[in-house]
Design brief:
mainly alpha; about 40% helix; single chain
């Protein structure tokens, strides 16, 4: 056990490396101009891994890696849309002081130049379509539009509503 709810076994590190590598490969595909939308179906997801510690079944922060890759490749503003019952605290912590990344938790507003660039809309378990629609149309989409990102990175947890990602994409257009 590395920390609460995070256990390392014989295959954990290789799985984490493969997941991070796949996620970076997907971003490279986009950065190389081969597409505008890609999907990396990976486990562990990585979004709970903090910059200095594994957390929440995650060892490497895949979202953080691809966001940093995009920034290093010349993208000026990246929005992280994390749709999960448990938001990506590791990703939010990694970019807490950045004004070029929109992410975060409900009580996390950012610090320094990153103040105001953290946003989270917690929804209760069993939230149905109308709840997602309201959260997306009233809070998330306006914030993302105002932030005006050149890149959006989505983390879609499998423990929330099945319509959450498609709902966001439909409302953002």
């Amino acid at each position: 056990m590395i920390c609460s709810a995070t256990f390392l076994n014989i295959g954990s590190w290789n799985a984490a490396l493969l997941a991070a590598g796949m996620t970076l490969s997907v971003m490279k595909y986009i950065l190389d101009g081969h597409g505008k939308i890609c999907y990396a179906l990976v486990r562990p997801p990585g979004h709970h891994a903090k910059p200095t510690q594994a957390d929440g079944y995650c060892f490497l922060d895949n979202a953080g890696l691809v966001v940093q890759y995009a920034l290093d490749s010349g993208y000026k503003r990246v929005a992280v849309i994390d749709i999960d019952v448990h938001y990506g605290n590791g990703t939010a912590e990694g970019f807490y002081h950045f004004d070029k990344v929109l992410t975060g938790g409900i009580n996390e507003l950012g610090e320094g130049v990153g103040f105001g660039f953290n946003l989270n809309v917690p929804l209760p378990n069993a939230t149905v379509d109308i709840g997602y629609k309201c959260a997306m149309t009233e809070v998330v989409v306006p914030a993302v539009r105002e932030f005006d990102p050149n890149m959006m990175v989505f983390f879609v947890g499998q423990d929330s509503s099945a319509v959450s990602m498609s709902s966001f994409l439909n409302f953002y257009e």
